[in-house]
Specification:
By secondary structure, the chain is of the alpha+beta class. Helix content is 36%, strand content 20%. The chain has three domains: 274 residues, Bira Bifunctional Protein, Domain 2 (BirA Bifunctional Protein, domain 2), CATH 3.30.930; 181 residues; 147 residues, 2-Layer Sandwich (Threonyl-tRNA Synthetase, Chain A, domain 2), CATH 3.30.980. Strands 1, 2, 3, 4, 5, 6, 7, 8, 9 and 10 form a ten-stranded mixed beta sheet that branches. It has a four-stranded antiparallel beta sheet with strand order 13-14-19-18, with helices on one face. A three-stranded antiparallel beta sheet has the order 15-16-17. It starts with a helix and ends with a strand.
Length: 631
């Protein structure tokens, strides 16, 4: 079964279960500038998990393109990608555990015809400290499911210590079987949602756990270990809790958020033990072999997989209709890091660095995905020119930089195995080495880098934008509190006021909203004058004083465009959308596509105050604002 067949079969299976198929959201989040990329299928759907009504109903499914920079160092094992597709389905207060677990097992065993004897599951063991019990309900459902296939499902606890123990259902704590956008329960901010999850694993074969070179060969093997034998292929998250000051409370509705890796499922369906051996990567790996002068993938697994993965990620990010190019800030920094890491690994396998070889691989990737993601073909020239330019820039200094790195490490005494922050910064500033690349080179030579010192050196010269894995809050609105809803509504007023003062070229480029403040990025090339900021404030506060109503309307996308709704229309939307109108009749202040949530009347907001206006990136400004008591 090809990956394309698998994707379609999954969506058709859910369509038959009365799910609406929605398009993949952009890799660049529209509603949140605190995370650089969309890293999960649920991220664009948070408002509906919080209780907003989705235009397509309470059951949705899709295949969502995702990017996770934190997996960059994992490339080279048999299962990780930085960019991947997540097959997902959601229930917003509709069906729950029984339907979800039965349906996914049905899809695996009846649609894909996987052997149920090779499937294992995990469930949440509970946490008394946060008041969330062990998930015995899911255990009973799983026992019933397995029994229908003649499998007596034994339950195992503390598998990390005991190993498999003949088990089929495994209890794990919140480090394995709790999911929210911001990690473990202890890390979740007040107002964040989450819940226990149940994962399904496929057994690739016992021989993988006993491989002579495996660093885990002498450790207990269980379904959540890292030996490579078991691979997670689907995770059903039961989002029914919200973090409060006292702990965790139940949400008003019980939600299902399922995600399953397309690449991993394709690997299993094609009889492979490595996601890079599937049809999703075969054409790319063949091209890399050709470019390397005949070197074989199986003899150079990590370099080949890094190149294939990183250029696919680069292609998807740059081809996402957002104009992202390699740079030293935000998403552009990640693209630069991906490309430069690709070039270094290309040299390891003998690819001629004097030729602009990156575009040749990019074209193969676009050819493989053009039917599913036509925006890649539409942006082909933009991607090609971007990677060619970045390769040319880096090649000019790479040789000199590598010579300088060798000189630095040759000067180190045996007892002095640390690169100073100044040395790492010089490699960054003079030779364009991302700090992560210097750390990787150092690790290969048994050295460490003084990262703290490097950060100090960097701050003296410039503020380097945060990376996608550097402690960011993942997802849309920060929480579900009333104050957050107020500031979200105020963001609509801010955009409308900016367009009135500065012009209709102003569009939202990102936002991050908590219960304390809003941060709003918008397209504009010049610093706002004091008079402009004052005028924006006055417009927003006059609208608040009028106590205008906030009305949600559902309509077709074409109707929203014709009615003049504000949106970034190069994004992908469902054919039916939600439009929020602030004001009525001839007194409409804002009319904008959005998923919510909002308050119902502006009189609840208080007084709007701009605290800061600054540059965010080239052609983008940022405003930080608060709501206070009425002055």
């Amino acid at each position: 079964m090809t990956a394309e067949d698998l994707r379609q079969r999954y969506l058709e299976f859910l369509r038959c279960k009365r799910h609406a198929v929605i398009p993949s959201a952009s890799l660049i989040p529209r509603e949140d500038s605190s995370t650089l990329f969309t890293g999960s299928g649920m991220q664009p759907l948070v408002p509906y998990l919080l209780g907003e009504n989705h235009p397509k109903g309470t059951r949705l499914c899709n295949s969502q393109k995702c990017f996770r920079a934190e997996d960059m160092e994992e490339i080279g094992d048999n299962r990780h990608n930085t960019v991947f597709e997540m097959l997902g389905n959601w229930s917003f207060g509709d069906y729950f555990k029984k339907e979800q677990l039965n349906w996914f097992f049905q899809f695996l065993t009846e649609e894909l015809r996987l052997d149920p004897n090779r499937l294992y599951v995990s469930v949440f063991s509970g946490n008394k400290d946060i008041g969330v019990p062990r998930d015995e309900e899911s255990v009973e459902i799983w026992k019933d499911i397995f029994s229908r296939y003649g499998i007596q499902a034994q339950i195992v606890e503390e598998a990390e210590k005991k190993g498999l123990g003949g088990g089929r259902i495994f209890y794990y704590n919140e480090s394995k079987n709790w999911w929210s956008r911001s990690g473990k329960p202890a890390d979740i901010p007040v107002g964040e949602i989450g819940g226990p999850d149940s994962e399904v694993f496929y057994d690739l074969g016992e021989e993988l756990s006993r491989h002579a070179k495996s660093p885990w060969k002498d450790q207990p093997c269980h379904i959540n270990c890292d030996c490579g034998r078991f691979i997670e292929i689907g995770n059903s998250v039961f989002i029914e809790y919200v973090k409060t000051e006292q702990g965790f409370d139940r949400l008003a509705q019980k939600n299902v958020d399922f995600g399953g890796g397309l690449e991993r499922m394709a690997m299993i369906m094609q009889g492979k033990t490595n996601v890079y051996e599937t049809d999703l990567f075969q054409n790319v790996l063949d091209k890399i072999e050709s470019l390397s002068g005949g070197k074989k993938y199986q003899d150079n697994i990590k370099p080949f997989e890094v190149i294939a993965d990183h250029l696919k990620a680069t292609t998807f990010i740059m081809g996402d209709n957002k104009g992202i190019k390699p740079s030293n800030t935000d998403q552009g920094y990640i693209v630069r890091r991906l490309i430069r890491r690709t070039i270094r690994y290309g040299r390891q396998i003998g690819i001629d660095s004097q030729e602009p070889w990156l575009p040749e691989v990019v074209k193969i990737i676009i050819g493989d995905y053009k039917k599913v993601y036509p925006e890649l073909s539409q942006n082909l020239e933009f991607i090609i020119e971007g990677v060619k330019e970045e390769q040319a820039k880096f090649e000019k200094t790479l040789n000199k930089g590598l010579k300088e790195f060798k000189r630095i490490i040759s000067s180190k005494e045996e007892a002095d195995r640390v690169l100073t922050g100044q040395e790492a910064f010089d490699l960054y500033q003079t030779y364009g080495f991302p700090i992560e690349m210097t750390e990787e080179l150092a690790l290969e030579k048994g050295l460490k880098v003084d990262r703290e010192d490097f950060s100090g050196q960097l701050k003296k010269h410039q503020e380097l934008s945060r990376t996608a894995s550097a402690g960011k809050f993942k997802g849309g609105l920060a929480d579900v509190r009333e104050e957050t809803k107020k500031l979200h509504t105020a963001a609509h007023l801010l955009l409308a006021a900016l367009r009135k003062v500065l012009g209709n070229h102003v569009h939202q480029k990102g936002s991050n909203i908590t219960a304390q403040r809003l941060r709003f990025d918008f397209s504009h090339s010049e610093k706002l004058t004091d008079e402009q900021k004052q005028e924006v404030e006055e417009l927003v506060n006059k609208a608040i004083e009028k106590d205008l109503s906030v009305i949600c309307e559902e309509m077709s996308l074409e109707e929203a465009k014709n009615n003049g709704a504000v949106a970034t229309f190069e994004d992908k939307y469902e054919d039916k959308v939600k439009v929020y109108k602030i004001g009525e009749g001839n007194n409409v202040f804002s009319y904008e596509l959005c998923g919510g949530p909002h308050i119902d009347r502006l009189g609840k907001l208080g007084y709007f105050k701009i605290k800061k206006e600054e540059s965010s990136s080239a052609g983008v400004r940022r405003i930080k604002a608060v709501l206070t008591a009425k002055e």
